[in-house]
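quick one before i forget lol
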Amino acid sequence: MSLLVLPADDPAAIAEAAGILRKGGLVAFPTETVYGLGANALDAEAVARIFAAKARPTFDPLIVHLADRSWLPRAVRETPEAAAVLAGRFWPGPLTLVLPKTSAVPDLVTAGLDTVGVRVPDHPAARALLEVADRPIAAPSANLFGCVSPTTAAHVVEQLGDRVDAVLDGGPCRVGVESTIVSFAAGSPVVLRPGGVAREELEQALGRAVGLVRERAPHDTALVAPGQLERHYATRTPLRLLSGRAETPGRGSRVGLLAFAEGPAQGFAAVEVLAPDGQPATAAANLFAALRRLDARGLDLLLAEPCSEEGLGSAIMDRLRRCAAGAV
């Protein structure tokens, strides 16, 4: 079957995509964060197709998407009080909670762990797809493993093509970076991956400090959540993270610049400004698309200016550090 690209705001298209999921197929769909590559989370054979399509190692667990909080018992065995507080405050939204899984969730989804990451997406098409399919949907980002995440349907088609049965086109993603992942495995909440909900917001909701895991895992290490590998979100062109504003490169250089805000940027072969308005939310929404545009220019090197790590800046810098890791 050839790839179907369907309008995400069409109920008939949603019904067609839901039918594909129920039959064990793969559907890429928009969320507020990035596009996800979805399969029936309770069907191990369907989930195996996700790993094959992305060339994703099975030691990297998947996030399970739910239509609303009432679906938690379909995937989760128990919900600590603090997790319930965060779900009540940030769902639907870019927050994933790592909680004890039920036996209905295949081990392939969780990389053999007894916990599963779950979230309720804040996008009308994603919620509609879940409701009509009437199944939890396992969905990592809809791209080849380790590459820049997709924030438009065109990004999905470019990388995955007919490895996917259908793509729901809902336009550009609003948030632009993946969900924040919070684990309760050690009792107290810990951020495993910075994302669309800032750690400061979590702490305000809970009235206490929330930990942050800063270590990055080697490429062949079993993970407890997605997005923890040392090198991830990678461009083909080597990227170097600067410590401050970029200086003018040498004459004739083939260097691209990823700038956080407007400013002097002479001598670069290409420049992308993430936040012309200076706002971190704008930078996050533009990050992956800007990286893709620079990467497509056939340059020798990309330089990325840093931003403050407050709020969404933490997620932006996390993605840039992982993109730059191992680059030469």
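fyi DSSP finds nine helices and 15 strands in the chain.
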